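Memo to structure team: turn this sequence into structure tokens by end of day. - J.P.
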Amino acid sequence: MFFGLFKQKDHRHYQALGAKYLAAERYADARVDFQEALKRCPAEAIQDALEIRKGLDLTGDRLGELNLQEGEHSLAAGELAKAYDHFTLAGELAADDSIKAKAAAGLKRVQQPMPAQPTAASSGHKAHGGSSCGTCKDAGSHGLEEQQIPESNLSEEDRFSLMIQPLPGELAGRYATLGHEFAKAYLLIHDGNDADAFPILKEMLVSGENDIVFYEVALIMYRSGQVHESEKLLNRALLLNPGNSMCYLALVQLMAERGRYPEAIRTVERMMELGILADQAQFMLGELHEASGDEASAMEMWSKSLELPGVARSAAERLIPILNRQGRSDEVKYLSKRYLKGCC
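Reply from structure team:
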């Protein structure tokens, strides 16, 4: 349930997260979670491993297609190094042979002589930074053994840029403006080094309060067991910026994990009032009601979610087992046909 902001879970937790991100077309996040799921998947869970690899293949194909598009754009602009990186990534990420073939063809075109075109230097325009698709963080190929792209091939600036791209709304742009020290701390957190990231973020707060920095410190505090301090920081962040969706999600998870379901529900309802991740919030209400033991309210929330394209399939997946238990086979058939047709 929810977004795994604080704790590490078993393989099924990450598998479920990967599926949710895939449905939301957040392919980089989906791939990261599917990779984590496969790494944690026990040898005896053969069916789970097969499903996880299907998810990896699908996200790899989607990321491959995105890199093909970026490669074409870069090639048309005469940015051969960027085009080469994108086509290379497309070939490495994709499981589909046709995507690999297109990537190989793109690489051949990059290596052919190109007509003279204005460069960033001659035209006076600064080229867009980064050398790979903004949705391809932590990318790798999909064999039985993971073959991830070595992060040493990317600069810290590029790694940071790739990791923040999937953030919702305007957050990616805001994260990008926080400077080198914040980026350094963010990478340390990503590498599991909260201890070295913490003093950097605390020093930033000395010079000025910022909701994003409060949020990142709050997650560190939670992971260290300082739950009350974490909650205070999240609330301070929301006082500074009532529209920070990640702070709401963290608060909801914090409350739910401690059994404070009425507070969590009120927080999600507040999100909906403000129009913050409204579709996802509607679905989350169903999760919260289910977790609190109110199956009827959960079904009501998920039934409303069926009208929201971004979460309709997930809602149907949650409703069908309940309807099966209730013997409502006609409704199960209807939901399966309408929302789950063609699923793996």
